[in-house]
Specification:
The complex is a heterodimer of chains A (about 110) and B (about 120). Chain A is about 0% helix and about 55% strand. Chain A is mainly beta and about 110 residues long. In chain A, the strands form two sheets. In chain A, strands 2, 4, 5, 9, 10 and 11 form a six-stranded mixed beta sheet that branches. Chain A has a five-stranded antiparallel beta sheet with strand order 1-3-8-7-6, with no helix packed on it. In chain A, a hairpin with a 6-residue loop joins strand 9 and strand 10 (about 100). In chain B, strands 2, 4, 5, 6, 9, 10 and 11 form a seven-stranded mixed beta sheet that branches. A four-stranded antiparallel beta sheet of chain B has the order 1-3-8-7, with no helix packed on it. In chain B, strand 4 and strand 5 (about 45-50) form a beta hairpin. The chains are: A mainly beta (about 110), B mainly beta (about 120).
Amino acid sequence: QKEVEQNSGPLSVPEGAIASLNCTYSDRGSQSFFWYRQYSGKSPELIMFIYSNGDKEDGRFTAQLNKASQYVSLLIRDSQPSDSATYLCADTNSGYALNFGKGTSLLVTP
Amino acid sequence: EAGVTQFPSHSVIEKGQTVTLRCDPISGHDNLYWYRRVMGKEIKFLLHFVKESKQDESGMPNNRFLAERTGGTYSTLKVQPAELEDSGVYFCASSHQNGPGTYEQYFGPGTRLTVT
């Protein structure tokens, strides 16, 4: 069974700090990796995707991929209370069907 | 640009009944996906349409589930007959077929299905 593992949390960080969210995956054939944010009762919202080893930055968000270690992470700089949500990691080996983890709950405290 | 829409937002049915969920993708998106989240579990892929064709239905749990996308626009997911374990949130997502945006799946608000 191909799995995406995430720590369920909650991860609590103070406002202005860096939040670090981590994810491991078991499918070595996975090509692309995604981070979605989901507020309670809402739909998942794509934050970033990454498919090359290394870092990819977009505003306050940085995704990091290490295929050798089968590890993906998301860093959120200058965390804001509005960043409090569940963060879902997903991979795909087809480019289409996403394989999700259960998500990490992030709480940013003022 | 309107997002992915789903109807109904919530459905409560009895075991053995039939329910049909509808998804309207973002205009121009050829890829349409159905996912499901059962309580306490991760979001699971059900199937993928490219236009009106089923590209991948490997995630469909059993033959009580039937998805269609006539004309390559909106899609329906029918559950017949519904069982208790079908309860969950059913998400629809869509994306472009080629070029920039292919990997970006936009999710609808979901339909919460409760089977009693």
